[in-house]
Amino acid sequence: MDAWSDQEYTMLHTIAVWVDNSWGCSHWDYSGVLFVNGPNSGYTSGPGLGLGLSLPNYGGGNYDIEVGFQFYCDCVQGYVPFGDWTQAQLQPQCGDERGSIIEEYSSRGVDLQPSCSDFTTSASSTYFQPHEYNKNGYHQWYIARGSLLSGADTVRSNYGSALIVNGSYRCPDKQCDIRCASIGGGRHMHGDAMDFNSYHDTPTWWAIRNAANTVSGRCIEPLDLSSNSHVHVDFRPSCPW
Q1: Exposed, middle or buried, 228 (CB in 10 Å: 0-12/13-18/19+)?
Q2: Which pTM does this prediction carry?
Q3: Distance from first CA to last CA of the chain, Å, rounded?
Q4: Which of 159, 153, 96, 106 is nearest to 168 (CA)?
Q5: How far is residue 214 from each of residues 159, 187, 210, measured CA to CA in Å?
């Protein structure tokens, strides 16, 4: 089964046609039903070789797909039963490289399924520019949540002087190149994290950490995890530290 296509409106196609030629059938056809259970559920049924289902699938997601067919031959009486359960990860395609970035989230097992509208090429804030929110990015598209845009500016304002960004958004492939073991829930892939350079200097680390510590919703990685090379600040819903 071809479980997805390159469209936001995803068309599922059934391509399961293998028959025993010894039955002497010159023309095979089928009637059947296709039921899809997921973020956008529905079904279709009917005869013919074009049975499929079009799903409004802007955000992607997991779909359970139940396919039930009876293949039949127009020159042999009787039906050949056929059925199959499968599961597909349907990916929205955005008309540009965002589609391939979204596929990285699925193939790398990230706990986020972004949509096309989550990405930007121009998000910036008062103190930080797009090239800092997407520093050394693998793609021109990146995610920069509003909580990060405002939070990073507040850290910089509290600190009182310029801050160097070591990194912010990472696509899953880049995250895996850096540290694949942490890829599942890495906040850089969520677009709400930034690493500020502390120059391997512990007093500087604490000065930046203190500037970030008063920001609403902040989550600061402890010194023993980040080392004194950088201060990691993110704005996840629930902070483990």
Answers
A1: middle
A2: 0.65
A3: 45
A4: 153
A5: 11, 20, 7
Q: What is the pLDDT of residues 128-139, one digit of tens each?
A: 999 999 999 999
The span from the CA of 36 to the CA of 53, in Å, is 8
Residue found by looking up tokens 């540009």 in the block: 96
CATH 3.30.1380.10 correct for 112-234: yes
From-to residues of CATH 3.30.1380.10 in the chain = 112-234
Tell me the C-alpha distance between 24 and 30, whole Å: 17
pLDDT in tens, 140-195: 999 999 999 999 999 999 999 999 999 999 999 999 998 887 676 799 999 999 99
Tell me the C-alpha to C-alpha distance, in Å, between residue 1 and each of 8, 16, 118, 121, 166.
18, 6, 29, 35, 44
Q: Which residue has the tokens 């990685």?
A: 221
Identify the CATH assignment for 9-90 out of 1.20.1740, 1.10.10, 2.60.40, 1.20.120. 2.60.40
